[in-house]
Specification:
Order of helices and strands: HHEHEHHHEHEHEH
Structural class: alpha/beta
Strand order of the largest sheet: 2-3-4-1-5
Helix content: 40-55%
Distance between the termini: 75 Å
Radius of gyration: 21 Å
Shape: globular
Number of helices: 9
Strand content: 5-15%
Largest sheet: 5 strands, parallel
């Protein structure tokens, strides 16, 4: 009886230790920030402008669209937002370059698996096709408050593959979608942030920063 009891407690304690290690690793992985340009001129003001459009007391799922031409800085801004507010959520995921990586079905499946790993930290989840992937996303994420960035979405099919419904995500979740296509956002998101080019003072500051690096 004593041996059984000892073995039971040993196994239970070992199991709890393993769970503790897994949780610690998961938290560490979730703290990994994304790389941002060495010269983030004009980024902070735009980051704060976007963040101010979000309601962090909301119990609903917020969809925010960021629209602008290619190369204007949408990805950089969303990376900075992701780094700044991401730790306030149960999980976060940044799916970059969906325009190219999600152009084929295989790429979409891979991105669905990445999304699940980023948030659930489970490598064992395998998705056979995008339709089953949608069900898996809903089942795994519907009770989690998550931050998800869908970067450079090109088609409605791509959007629906990763965000087919607000019901897929838990209360208080935030989904940020960047795109070059304004029509893709119209009627589908709560707010649209129109990315603008640098103003004159920001352009001069960037020029001076780049010049300083070249000479020093």
């Amino acid at each position: 009886m004593c041996i059984y009891t000892y073995t039971f407690y040993f196994c239970r304690n070992e199991s709890e230790d393993i769970k503790g290690i897994v949780n610690s690793i998961s938290q560490l992985l979730n703290k990994t920030d994304l790389f941002i340009s060495n010269n983030p001129v004009g980024i902070e003001s735009r980051v704060q402008d976007v963040i101010n459009r979000l309601d962090f007391q909301s119990k609903g799922v917020q969809l925010l669209g960021m629209w602008g031409m290619g190369g204007i800085g949408k990805t950089t801004i969303t990376k900075a937002i992701y780094n700044k507010i991401g730790r306030n959520f149960d999980g976060r995921s940044f799916l970059a370059n969906i325009r190219e990586d999600g152009a084929k079905i295989a790429g979409q499946v891979g991105l669905q698996e990445q999304l699940l790993f980023d948030i659930c930290k489970e490598r064992t989840i395998k998705i056979p096709n995008t339709e089953l992937g949608k069900n898996t996303l809903k089942d795994k994420l519907c009770h989690k408050r998550v931050l998800i960035v869908l970067d450079d979405v090109n088609t409605l099919d791509q959007l629906n593959t990763f965000c087919g419904s607000r019901e897929w995500f838990g209360s208080g979740s935030v989904i940020i979608i960047t795109t070059r296509d304004l029509d893709l956002l119209s009627g589908r998101v709560d707010k649209i942030y129109n990315m603008t080019t640098m103003n004159e003072s920001e352009s001069i500051e960037l020029f001076r920063s780049e010049s300083y690096k070249r000479f020093y």
